[in-house]
Amino acid sequence: xxxxxxxxxxxxxxxxxxxxxMKRIVAMIARGKNASDLFPAVVKNVACxxxxxxxxxxxYLVRYAEEQQDLALLSISTFQRxxxxxxxxxxxxxxxxxxxxxxxxxxxxxxxxIKEAASDMSPYVRKTAAHxxxxxxxxxxxxxxxxIEVIEKLLADKTTLVAGSVVMAFEEVCPERxxxxxxxxxxxxxxxxxxxxxxxxxxxxxxxxxxxxxFLNPNINEGGEKxxxxxxxxxxxxxxxxxxxxxxxxxxxxxxxxxxxxxxxNTKPLLQSRNAAVVMAVAQLYFHxxxxxxxxxxxxxxVRLMRSHSEVQYVVLQNVATMTIxxxxxxxxxxxxxxxxxxxxxxxxxLKLEVLTNLxxxxxxxxxxxxxxxxxxxxxxxxxxxxxxxxxxxxxNIGEVRDTCLNGLVQLLSNRDExxxxxxxxxxxxxxxxxxxQHSDIIKHMAKLTDNIQVPMARASILWLIGEYCEHVPKxxxxxxxxxxxxxxxxxxxxxxxxxxxxxxxxLTNSKQTKLLTQYVLNxxxxxxxxxxxxxxxxxxxxxxxxxxxxxxSKYAKKLFLALKPAPVLxxxxxxxxxxxxxxxxxxxxxxxxxxxxxPDWPESAPDxxxxxxxxxxxxxxxxxxxxxxxxxxxxACGVFLSSDQSSGEEQKRNRKVxxxxxxxxxxxxxxxxxxxxxxxxxxxxxxxxxDTDIKKKKKTIAPxxxxxxxxxxxxxxxxxxxVEYCFSRQPFSPDPHMVAVxxxxxxxxxxxxxxxxxxxxKLQSGMRIKEFPEIGQDFLLPAGESVNxxxxxxxxxxxxxxxxxxxxxxxxxxxxxxxxxxELMVPAFLTENEFKKEQGQLMGMNEISxxxxxxxxxxxxxxIVERVTAKANxxxxxxxxxxxxxxxxxxxSSGSLVLVTVARKEGGGAQLTVNCEKMVIGTMLVKDILQAxxx
Amino acid sequence: MVTALSGDQPPVVMSHKDLNFxxxxxxxxxxxxxxxxxxxxxxxxEFLNRLAALTKDYCGSLCEKxxxxxxxxxxxxxxxxxxxxxxxxxxxxxxxxxIQTEAVTSKPFSLFDLSNVGLFGAETQQSKVAPSAAAxxxxxxxxxxxxxxxxxxxxxxxxxxxxxxxxxxxxKADVEGEIRVKCYLPTCSEMRIGLNExxxxxKSQLRGYGMAVRVDECSxxxxxxxxxxxxxxxxxxxxxxxxxxxxxxxxxxxxxxxxPFRLFPTVEKDYGNRLLIFLKLRCDLPPKSTALNxxxxxxxxxxxxxxxxxxxxxxxTADLQLKNKAILWSIPRFPGGAxxxxxxxxxxxxxSSASLLEVGPVSMSFELPKHTCTGLQIRFLRLxxxxxxxSQRWVRYVTxxxxxxxxx
Lengths: 936, 408
Fold this sequence. Notes:
The complex is a heterodimer of chains A (about 950) and B (about 400).
Chain A: H1 4-11, H2 15-30, H3 39-43, H4 51-64, H5 69-82, H6 88-100, H7 107-118, H8 123-139, H9 144-155, H10 160-173, H11 179-182, H12 185-191, H13 197-214, H14 226-229, H15 238-250, H16 258-267, H17 276-289, H18 292-295, H19 297-305, H20 310-326, H21 328-331, H22 346-359, H23 365-376, H24 381-397, H25 402-412, H26 418-432, H27 440-449, H28 456-468, H29 476-487, H30 493-509, H31 511-526, H32 531-544, H33 557-561, H34 585-589, H35 636-639, H36 644-665, H37 671-702, E1 711-714, E2 722-728, E3 740-748, E4 754-755, E5 758-763, E6 769-771, E7 781-782, E8 787-795, E9 803-808, E10 813-818, E11 826-828, H38 833-842, E12 848-854, H39 862-872, E13 876-878, E14 885-892, E15 898-905, E16 910-917, H40 920-935
Antiparallel strand pairs in A: 1-2, 2-3, 3-8, 4-7, 5-9, 6-8, 9-10, 11-14, 12-16, 13-14, 14-15, 15-16
Helix pairs in contact in A: 1-2, 2-4, 5-6, 6-7, 6-8, 7-8, 7-9, 8-9, 8-10, 9-10, 10-13, 12-16, 12-36, 13-17, 17-19, 20-22, 22-24, 23-24, 24-25, 24-26, 25-26, 26-28, 27-28, 28-30, 29-30, 29-31, 30-31, 30-32, 31-32, 36-37, 39-40
Chain B: E1 13-16, E2 19-26, E3 29-35, H1 41-59, H2 64-69, H3 71-81, E4 82-83, E5 86-87, H4 92-98, H5 111-116, H6 132-135, E6 150-164, E7 170-183, E8 190-195, E9 199-201, E10 213-215, E11 217-220, H7 229-232, E12 234-237, E13 242-252, E14 261-269, E15 274-283, E16 290-299, E17 306-311, E18 317-321, E19 326-335, E20 339-347, H8 353-356, E21 362-369, E22 378-384, E23 391-406
Parallel strand pairs in B: 6-23, 9-10
Antiparallel strand pairs in B: 1-2, 2-3, 4-5, 6-7, 7-13, 8-12, 8-22, 11-13, 14-15, 15-20, 16-19, 16-21, 17-20, 18-19, 21-23
Helix pairs in contact in B: 1-3
């Protein structure tokens, strides 16, 4: 079949026709139709300018490239070109598609592309590189060693955007290389809260495994943890426990590794996450890693998840069921949350029942049983059956209520619903087996039921009971056998087998009355259609009927048939499920799924903790920094641009803390060790202060997105030794989104300390507002030679008027003023091309300012223009179909008016700059600034 | 392969050889993911839920038709969200920078749509409250429409579950609620939502002098700023386009007012084989409120054969569902303060006194528009700075029954 019309449309010059064709083709793929014969026609459009068409071509290409390898190669050069594009989004998307094309010939090209992208300036591209790693690995596992190098490099990345993706790659390619994590462990712990949610899940799971290999069991001194909560299998491991206790006596007291604590502390706030996967990941981390006393915090979070979709509930309950077996105490306060609602689907009801049964103990059993009673009335038969089984389990686990339960179940025997009766019989049978002597009346009652009850399993259970305890009902038993012999031929197979058993047992105990009956039943069985039953009959006859040929075994027939049988253990199907990592698919299936990583056992002795120490370099000095951490509104979009000094600053703090904690907390460790550590940290700080200034310079030149110009607020001579500089950090000011964040750096160049830095007496134009940095405390001293960073917010009311105020120390006051360049009065706005055009159309006339210019020599390329404009003004790029144009968009901070900038290049180095903005003053000034930047 | 499907509730996770299938059900569609490796099932379920929500945001509504019409868009969405099985992002804000294809919306024209489709797609007579068609519009479509309206919807949705004992005592009552925002504003400015000033969380805290509006627990979307919450009960948020849940809260074990429905049942054995069930149902809502789509399910003995009924008005219906062995009594509209009664005569061969035990518990489902059980109200909804152009703000309240059981 040919798709000539589609081919024609793809070959046409009109984008709209191409688009329509591509949409139809994608719809064909979605319906499962084969569209591979269109490959040549589609692949031609891979370089199409229209981004809509292009993206659909990518979708097609990824789907069919494997089948049409030769033709797919034609498209490779387009992507190679894309990898060099100045726009980070295009670079990333080229890498994404290139790495999705599963053609082995291009493995070397992919490898090269991944390596280059891994050191790309844009974190978004680096993230894509991390995603590409497992793709290449699955295409060609030979590349593993090289890929591990890339992973190692990306693991060291400090941006939150990359962290999640690279850990995913790590888990896929080399989960066994736990050594790669050591140096990054603390950083990952600290970044965790800012990583996007899907990354968090992966990182937390990986860190759980890591912690199991590197730290000691925090519950080691508690002995068997089961003892505390009283679980049913205490007796089994008594001896083990004794041995353990003896070993413990010799062991020194347990001190938690500070890194272990760090992980627990940093994951705890994530229990509040709105993403169920994150909450569960943290819950399993606490379950597997936390000291027993702290695990309780996860119960509340998990109970909260139960208010979510039923699918989520289902998975949560599976995990809760496993947890309740090990740590019953933790969920007891939430007993009511597991009560069943009439609207719950059956599978949820049954899981809730499971949890309730696990939670039952002497104190709450009466409440639970009352609840169970109402469940028996339900219309859902599966659920009623499960409830009866649950009652049985409660009765076996809690001795005090056994009789109550038994009586309740016996009452159910008069229920009109056969299923209820049948299920009750089965459960009663199990219960009676534990103490048959006291309950001959119940057995009698059940014997009567054989007349009515038809469910085979229940009939079989009754017959077994009567046979087993025939001494307790000596009169009734032969009569039951008589009735059964009558109906033998119409019974189900399992019932027939039990009739044979009953006959054999009666023959052995009461042969006078039952000899003939037994013979009769055995004869019937001899000609049964089912070979199991024929076999059983033959076997029984040989054993019990003495003949001359019968061997030595018949002497033991009584012992064989009437041996004391151990009572069945009614236990939870969730017992021992916890050997699978909670929250994993394997746990859910109770079977190992492909690629499941075993959760290792705790090590006997702790591995060297110093492997996680990191030498600190290339970060701005930040000792005791008062940094207001702005959480970017809208999450990751801004997260991309968060400069690295926040995280590294934190990390540094963390390192200091660790050193401190070590000093105080590790008395048991040898002194030598702690000495060497402290000297290490000293040398670190020296190194930092030396390289401090260099780094700042370096920063300015390296990354344009994070390069910030420092302005002087107070020269060190006028400030009598106190030098103050400020910069516009371009980060959102979290206390008030209408303010511009100004980062101020104080450096004390005097030989004495400076105290109580604060702001007084602001003189502001009307409407302007200042949010001071929190005073750095009376107690805080800025020691000689040190510096400190603070962030303050100023609402400039979208004007370039200076904000004047006094800067005070404990001794002096200085008049200072901050005047913003116009480009700092705005924040990036993310628009699409269409939105941009639409908005521009509304800002014409007076609101549009246009200038012609000649581009400077160094600024002919796209890349240079983008760099200069974004350096001058805090704007974001807008995607643009035309190659000659660059577009930027932003909003003023205070009033949110749009600022749109277009730079259209012309032949011969000329260009046209257009600024559209409602605020004409801002527009005019911005044109001037950008003009200057572009012509230099 | 799908032999494990039992009735209407297939297991969430199914596996066949090495392949595992995980599904969720939303909008009458199955969203299935398959995996060979041990991926976190939570991640997959959560992702499928997000995907469904995003599809709804982008296509306007969630049904087979809208999915079929927007294959290209959904492929593009998936392409941006997942890369070789790894989730890249699910945030609307980021995705809208990438997604190019525009949604095709189905606009079936029927008189029924114009008059009778109400809140949340349910059939109500209260549909004049808000333009329902607007709420099921794709969030991205305004890009091309010049006259796209700037609208924002704030919905307070509560689900109530109640168990009333046979003696009329309220045994259990839980309310789960959430505040949802659906935003169509092209550029997002800050929005301030004021709740009742006497809104209090937990048992100890009491505010205001009058009746406090109390909840036990409260959680917020991460984008909500709470600096004014403690003093003024104001939520501040910059909503991104699409639908999101700003706040969730729960109230357990106690209701600030009487439960909405009371039932006074009498079950008797007639001479012969007839069972007489006399039900008096009272609606305890304030007189201005009305309950809609009330349905009462009364389980009857297994052997019931036929039913004759006496109902108080012709718009009510009742029938015996032989499959479930229950009487279904439906009342389309039930004003507050009213009392309805019904007499059911059920033919049960072999009726005994034990059969009487098989009647009940009664379960109900209903919808209460313009009513919240906790009493939570939205005092005001402000966009600051005032958005240029007309922005329309809608606040809607509704309470659904989650599980409402009355034991007999």
